Every structure is written in C-alpha cells, then in structure tokens.
Here is the input.
Amino acid sequence: MSQAFPEHFLWGGATAANQCEGGYNEDGKGLSTADIMTAGSHDVQREITKEVIKGRYYPSHLAIDHYHRFEEDIALFAEMGFKCYRMSINWTRIFPQGDEKEPNEAGLRYYDKVFEACQKHGIEPLVTLSHFETPLGLLKYGSWTDRRVVDFYLNYSEVMFKRYKGKVKYWITFNEINVMSTKSWMAGGIDSDDEQVRMTAAYHQFLASAKAVQMAHQIDPENKVGMMYAGHFSYPNSCDPEDVQANDDFMHKMLFYCDVQCRGYYPAYKLKEFEREGIVLPTQDGDTEELVRGKVDFLSYSYYLTHVVGKETDLVMKGLNGVKTGYNNPYLPTTEWGWTINPMGLRYSLNLLYDRYQIPLMIVENGMGAVDRLEEDGTVHDDYRINYLREHIQEMKKAINVDGVPVLGYTMWSPVDIISASTGEMKKRYGLIYVDVDDQGEGTYKRVRKDSFYWYKKVILSNGEYLE
Here is the structure.
C-alpha cells in the first residue's frame, strides 16, 4: 500500500480540557461535572461526590497542569509536525455557572493565547465545545432535561464562534454524544438511569447542536461543524439469527445519535421503541425543521475497540466502560484494561459510517492505554503503542485508498499523558509524551518524549508513508 494520504490530511492528536488543564478554580473558572469526580482505578469506579470534599483527590483539579504549560505542550506537538490539534474549551472558564449572560473575560483571554500558540506553529485547532464538563450551575435546572439549557449552550457557542472567528474553523458540538446512553453524568450532568430522562436530555443536545451548526455557518461561512460519536462497533457472537438480531439492536441503540445529527431526523426504529416504552420527546413547533437545517458537516468519532454481542444469558452479559455487551472475542488480544485491540475494525467502522451517511469522516480519538515505565536514563520505550498505532493507521489507509472513504484527519489519543476519563488514573497512559505525575497528583510534571513521539513524527513527515 504505497499511495500517500490526501495532501492536506490533518495529522495530529487530541486532548480534553478537563483531563489535561488543571487550574480548576483559577481566573474565575466555575465547577463542572468533571471537577467532582474522584479518581478510580482498574476495578474501582470513579465516585461523583456532588461537591468538592476537602481531603478527597479530584484528578481534574491538577490534571497535568496544561493550563500553565500549554505553550510547552503545543511546541512539543509542533515538533512532531502536527497539522491539527483537537482540544476542548472548558465551558466553565467562559461561563462559570453556565447561565450567565456575559462571559468571563479571563477565560476568553486564556484560549486567545492557546489559539495564538497553535497559529504560531501552523497547527489547525479542532475545537470541541462540550467535552464531559457540563457546568454544575446548570444542575439547578435539571441540566439537559430543561430546554433552557439549550439557550445557555447557544449563548456560549455564539461567544465562541464570534471570539475565535478566523482562528478556529473546525468545531465539534458535543464529545461522544451517545455516551448519554451509557454514562449520562459524563455526557450531560444527568445522574439517572431512567430512559425518559436520558432521551429528554439527548433531545435537547440534538436541538442545541443543530442550532449551533446553523449559527456557526451564519457567523463564518468557512466554519465546518461536526458531531462526535463514541465509537461503539460490534459483531454478532455467532451466525445464530438471535445473535445477529441482538447485535443489530445494540448498534441501533448507539447509531441513532448519528442518524439524528447526520440525517436530521429520528429513525423509524427509534420512534417505534419510544412508542413501545412510553417515552415522549419534549418537542415544540419548529423543532423538526431545526434538526434538518442543523445537520453536521462531518462525522468524527473515537475508535478504541470492538464489541461482541449476542442473545442475553446470565453467564456472559456484563459491562465494559458502561456498555452492556458481554461476550469476549477469542480472536483478539486485549490491553491491560481489557479493551480489545482490533485494527481491522477501524477500516470496518470507516466503511460502515460512510456507507450509512456519505459525509466526510474524521478519527479524533484512537490510542492505547498502558502502564509506561520511565527508565533511569530518561527514556520511555513503548513499542506496544507504536505497534497499536501503526496497525490502525495501516487500516485507515486501506479505507481511504482501497475503499474510497473520505477521511479528513486523524488525531490520536493522546499526544501527551492525561487523566483517564474512564478511571481517573494517570497510570493508564495514552501519550506520546510522558508526564511525570502519579495517580495522586505527585511528581515533577516534567515532559519526556517517548519512543512513540519520534515514530509519529516520521509518520507525519512522510504523510503516512513511513509506518516501520
């Protein structure tokens, strides 16, 4: 496979503000849903404490101190040759409670400097407006269950689009929006398993996204606005028709989010499900037209693993990261955290999504969480990560050159070690740059280039030709 990636392919990496910035109460920032989540571990769930409790450790409060070190980090990204940096705005830096009329100027100035650093190094920002950090101040409304939050989000979005016009042209409205069906607290400050509650919140996020897409295009016709799907892809456990149907049902539960944002309407299978379950959407006049007019320009998604799904039995049904699937795949290895490693599934997912929606795609998260060792000589040897990324990039290349899928870019997760969203750990490292900090926030915070740093630099310099 010798043909190069497209000439202007957006190579880069991705972070999230609540996982890297720290500075949780600096310069007027308010509290978000991420700021009251404690650290967890491989086998201990993160706790939501509802408020900051003295003496408890909250990883987002310090994270990797990117808030004070962003210039150093972005310079390291530039050293790797990044064309694109996917990052997020921390909503509560701009509107501390979420419902203010006027923004916090100190927060705006901070992101002014971040974008100036990107511009200095020729890096295109890809900005997620809401990445698992709903303002706690919005909980008094019931968070996304209340339609007023749509207007608060649009006020925030308008400030972003106007302030950073000319500096940012690629936007994502919500990170992994389908996480509303698996971890609703992270997705939108919804602490409920009730499907009526979750689907009400999802509806309001769909509406907010659709209106934000239209607003972005009006403010700057150069803006491109995408959705972001948490990449859940699955195979049936066998050719038993019951397993095939169970797999189809699972994918419907996930992909309906893409259906609404890419097609502009709820699919028939979801409406029938609502009818059976007695779920009523909080529709108002004009909403149907808003969803159609607010279809996204591109579909971005995360890809880490694939699932195996089949008919339910008490022996096998279990959850992985909030997703009930249950079967193991005997053909695939797993990471230390039990996530399957399936490079071929990336090509499969690209084809599945493009066949379904026919809009440009972007892979905005793909990486491997592992325990890395900092050697005495200051090196980090992570051949396992290089192998993981190489094999996935090779499959992406096939999707582009063999299958004809239009892929805009690839921002691996993550260019620098950051707090794990699923477990709140530091030892579950994804980065190409090692950060000297442990699970309790102790360390020098020094940045160290891993072997994968130098490898990825060669990949980008060769536009994907070098994959040795």
